TrEMBL record:
InterPro entries: RNaseH_sf, Transposase-MT_Hybrid. This is Histone-lysine N-methyltransferase SETMAR. GO terms for molecular function: nucleic acid binding.
Length: 148
């Protein structure tokens, strides 16, 4: 169950972070982003939902989050059906772009933007709501497998 102090839940997707082509998103970049979002994290009742990516489990990231004293909901180990980045957004994108070939990065970017731009806030709210339900279900059965 999510902490009772959580007034809202926000999924922070680091793939939105622009670091340039062929650049690695590591723990340092993760921490830099968290520092930039610190005020919003601390003042809006946000719960961070982390998967088991190395950048999230790195000591430096964990120490920074301890300093923030914010709520963090750690992803259950070895539970691919609850992967936060793959949960709703990527399957929809795969359905739209699957089977297509792109010659340039710009083509990919314009197709992704064309897919995401018309999506209403309700699409994301419903997706996060389903994710919270599945996380809660997983917690109630002590981290065992959860069917969709």
């Amino acid at each position: 169950m999510l902490p009772p102090s959580a007034s809202c839940v926000v999924l922070v997707a680091f793939f939105k972070q622009k670091v340039g082509l062929r650049k690695t998103i590591n723990a340092a970049v993760c921490c830099q982003t968290l520092r930039r979002l610190r005020r919003a994290i601390l003042t809006s009742g946000v719960v961070l939902i982390h998967d088991n990516a190395r950048i999230h489990s790195a000591v430096v990231t964990q120490q920074l989050l301890e300093q923030f004293k914010c709520d963090v909901y750690d992803h259950t180990a070895y539970c691919p059906d609850l992967s936060t980045s793959d949960f709703q957004l990527l399957p929809e994108l795969k359905n739209r772009l699957g089977g297509q070939s792109f010659q340039k990065n710009e083509e990919i970017q314009s197709n992704v933007k064309a897919h995401h731009t018309p999506l209403a806030a309700r699409f994301f709210e419903e997706g996060i709501g389903c994710l919270i339900y599945r996380f809660d279900k997983c917690l109630k059965i002590n981290g065992n497998y959860v069917k969709k």
